[in-house]
Description:
The chain is an alpha/beta fold. The chain has 3 domains: 37-346, ABC transporter type 1, transmembrane domain (ABC transporter transmembrane region fold), CATH 1.20.1560.10; 383-444 and 525-615, 3-Layer(aba) Sandwich (Rossmann fold); 454-523, P-loop containing nucleotide triphosphate hydrolases (Rossmann fold), CATH 3.40.50.300. The protein is 60% helix and 10% strand. It has 21 helices and 12 strands. Strand 4 (423-428) and strand 5 form a beta hairpin. Helix 2 packs parallel to helix 5 (145-187), helix 5 (145-187) packs antiparallel against helix 6 (189-196) and helix 10 packs antiparallel against helix 11. The longest helix is centred in the first third of the chain and has 50 residues, at 85-134. The radius of gyration is 35 Å and the shape is elongated. The two termini are 25 Å apart.
Amino acid sequence: xxxxxxxxxxxxxxxxxxxxxxxxxxxxxxxxxxxxxxxxxxxxxxxxxxxxxxxxxxxxxxxxxxxxxxxxxxxxxxxxxxxxxxxxxxxxxxxxxxxxxxxxxxxxxxxxxxxxxxxxxxxxxxxxxxxxxxxxxxxxxxxxxxxxxxxxxxxxxxxxxxxxxxxxxxxxxxxxxxxxxxxxxxxxxxxxxxxxxxxxxxxxxxxxxxxxxxxxxxxxxxxxxxxxxxxxxxxxxxxxxxxxxxxxxxxxxxxxxxxxxxxxxxxxxxxxxxxxxxxxxxxxxxxxxxxxxxxxxxxxxxxxxxxxxxxxxxxxxxxxxxxxxxxxxxxxxxxxxxxxxxxxxxxxxxxxxxxxxxxxxxxxxxxxxxxxxxxxxxxxxxxxxxxxxxxxxxxxxxxxxxxxxxxxxxxxxxxxxxxxxxxxxxxxxxxxxxxxxxxxxxxxxxxxxxxxxxxxxxxxxxxxxxxxxxxxxxxxxxxxxxxxxxxxxxxxxxxxxxxxxxxxxxxxxxxxxxxxxxxxxxxxxxxxxxxxxxxxxxxxxxxxxxxxxxxxxxxxxxxxxxxxxxxxxxxxxxxxxxxxxxxxxxxxxxxxxxxxxxxxxxxxxxxxxxxxxxx
Length: 615
């Protein structure tokens, strides 16, 4: 039987991670429309890009016209060799100028598309992270951190690469196809119909493969997310893995995730590989048909050879964007899948909303009340809390005890409004916490977790995180109060010493001291200690207890603990059992009741060195 504190909702066990499917994927047209909305704030860059694409496409149409004119008027005028070198030179110079314009506009459109595209990517990531900051803990309960990181980084980067490097070629390719088709019909309808007869074939090919390719690339993005999640988990748990000599088992799980990623990518490559070769076959058919029909018309005197040459060049120019479209279509599908997945984060419903008329507290006394509060984390699951009623007076020190799963962490989650109760209400100073602004509610509270999280940065920055307006003197004063100053002053850069990722360059007890200092520098009206002294040595615990004696004097404090020395500091003890508040009172009162608390006490504390009170 365990009597431990915790913080958070229901946790999933170990094992293979199955990527969250999320909402139904949006259609490509819906994604493109949303992409256009994101680009509206860069109208100037988009306008320059559109103008350069139009000029680029026009120059691609004019080149073959000059070629036809040169052949029919200067090289073989009337079917005989020509001798007008001056006229031909003018055509050559004009062709060179058009080539320069083509080169310049291609560079311009690439630059402005990349500029606008980078802003869109910036805005997507910004919106995604801002949404993640607003989502409740329910969203994160069954989503590994690695998978979420993959959406915001890998998926957006895939979309970014396509938008920056391939999208301009596709856009200019589509406009070139339209321009070439119009000119072809204007010059010779019969030959234009023959030349463009391949377009429906290509459209049919893409239509037939679109669904399979999209699903295949969706599977690759899911497998990448799962793989990232597994790597993140393996790195975070490397100490546990090595301590249990479980490297082979961990490697086997990674190998399985890696194999699934390989399989999905091979499947996507298989479907993608059909597009290019089939398009080339269709292109060969089109060229043959144009030459055959064109030659027939020339024999009948209805077409000049220069026009046929122009149609050949146009057909090649037509196939160049078609080839680009078919070549980049797999990347396009992967980019749309990546965009869809990051938009799923942005579109995720916020289940904890701040009321439009939410009020802001100027001062908080620290009176806390739970009125008939019940909560279940998932539909169909048993209640985490059931009909809890308790009234805490300001500056009261309350210990919350119970077995694992009793509802201790849920109590704290509701107090901070990480969740809303299914029934009942949680009140702070007589106000339902749902009627308070989030910032107003939480800036008056602070929590110290059993496993404290420290950010990469200096010791000073980590402590000041509890109150960003705190001065250096405020931070140093609090550090001295919790007995942390001597340790910090012994560090190479003292308060400017950098804490590495996962804080692996300081001890667990020192991390706990930093976390306590961070909470106290906020000067909260409500303080929550979640097993705050469970991982420190006896000497450090004495220092913390002295600091906490000062901290308890002018604020409401909740203690989730199983150490007798900590619990006996409380003026009242709440005993939770299977989500219900079954007992409350002082330590001595609860022992005399000989109920749940007394039973837990005998199991956990009968060997304690602390004297047992008389009954």
